[in-house]
Amino acid sequence: MYQFSKLIYLVRIPFLKQCPVPMLYSFASEDGIQVEANGFQKRVGPKPEDVGAVSRGSYSYTSPEGFLITVNWVADENGFQAKGDHLPVAPPMPPHVVKMLADLRAAGRL
What we know:
By secondary structure, this protein is mainly beta. Helices cover 11% and strands 42% of the residues. The protein has a six-stranded antiparallel sheet, with no helix packed on it.
């Protein structure tokens, strides 16, 4: 079981008095953690009930080694996508895979 070593107080947390659509929130804590996010609903299909959410945000904190870690993210119809200098990046696709995908797309099979 995780044991908390001490309480960390929030130093900034604005409250919204309106309905949370579009959604917007942020907070900061006394240990340097900062979080911000915003979002809205988006129609993702032909029917009125085909509604999804699009959210964007970031968070940052200081690692145990003393480095500032920042993650910027988007969550939409393409899934959750996070970016940060500390995150690994996939290598580029080999040319034969790029060609195969282009051929499949041109044939209407992708």
